[in-house]
Amino acid sequence: MKRLCILISSILVCACTQAQTNYKVKVVKEYPHDTGAYTQGLFFHDGILYETTGQWGQSSIRTVDLESGKPVQNKKLSSKYFAEGSVILGEDLYVLTWTNKVAFRYDAKSLSFKKTVSYPREGWGITTDGKQLIASDGSATLYFMDQDLKVQKKLQVTMSGRPLRNLNELEWINGRVWANVYLTDMIVIINPDNGKVEGAIDCAGLLPAKLRTQNTDVLNGIAIDAAGKIYLTGKYWPRLYQIELVKQK
Asked: Model confidence over 54-84: pLDDT tens digits?
C-alpha cells in the first residue's frame, strides 16, 4: 500500500508539472517608452494605448502614441494618490490606488473625472473579460467584481499546487488572465475557472543590460491590441516590446 501511495503521488506531481507550459519571449518589434513612466497599468482600447503611472507626486493617467512613446493625453493625479492598475469596462475607465483605499472612475474617452469609489484592499493590477473586472492585491488572490467594484468571486492562484503571491499587473488574453509576478521576470498564465497557472513566461533579458540605468525598475506592463499582438514593458523602461511566445521543451 505504501509503495502504491508513493507511485500515485509521483503520478500526481508529474501531471501537475506537465499541465504547465513554459515559454520564453521573442521580440518582434520595439517602440520607445517614457523612462519617466513608473508603469502600473497598460492596455489597448479601441485602438488607443492607455497607461497609468505610479509613485507619490508622479501618478498619472495617459493615452500614449505607440510609435513615439509620448503621451497624447496626460492627466495627473493629486500627489496624495499612488495610482496602480487601470482598465476600461463599458464607458468607464477604472483606476486603482495602492494604499489610499479608493478607486476612481473616469470617462474613457475624455478622461474626465466621474466619481471616487471605496476600495477596501490594496490596489495592484486590474483587467476585464468584457463582463466583469478582475483585480489583484499583491496576494495569491484574484477578485472578480461587478462594475460597482463589488466582489462577486475570489479565486486563489496556485502554481504547482502552491499559492502564488505577488500577482501584479493583469491582462485578459485569449480567455486567460496573464499576471506579472512582482519583483520577478516571470509572467504567469492563469485559468480563471480554477486558478491554476497553466503557463509561465520567462522574460529575463527582455530589456538588455546596455539599456538599463540606475533608475530602471522591474518588468510590469502587459497589453494586447485588437489584432492580438502582445506588448510588454517595465517601470521606467526605455522600450515597449511587441513579443511572441516561444514554447520551451
From this structure: 999 999 999 999 999 999 999 999 999 999 9
**167 sits in which H/E element:** strand 167-173
141-148 long-range contacts (CB < 8 A, ≥24 apart) are 141/167, 142/167, 142/170, 142/177, 142/190, 142/192, 142/195, 144/192, 147/89, 147/90, 147/92, 148/117
The class level of CATH for 22-247 reads mainly beta
Neighbour-count burial for 23-54, b at 16+ CB within 10 Å, e otherwise: bbbeeeebbebbbebbbbbbbbbeebbbbbbb
Strand partners, 145: 133, 151
3-state secondary structure of 239: strand
Give per-residue pLDDT as tens, 91-145: 999 999 999 999 999 999 899 999 999 999 999 999 999 999 999 999 999 999 9
Q: Hey, where are the domains in the chain?
A: 22-247
d(CA 31, CA 88) in angstroms, rounded, equals 23
6: its cell numbers: 508513493
CA distance 65 to 119: 31
Q: Hey, what's the cell of 17? A: 508539472
**In contact, 54 and 82? CB cutoff 8 Å:** yes
Spatial separation of the C-alpha atoms in residues 213 and 204, rounded to whole Å: 16
Instruction: Count CB neighbours of 132 within 10 A.
Output: 15
Determine contact, residues 61/52, Cβ cutoff 8 Å. Answer: yes
Q: Report yes or no: 95 and 106 within 8 Å, Cβ to Cβ.
A: yes
Residue tagged 499559492 (cell numbers):
163
Q: Contact at 8 Å (CB) between 153 and 195?
A: no
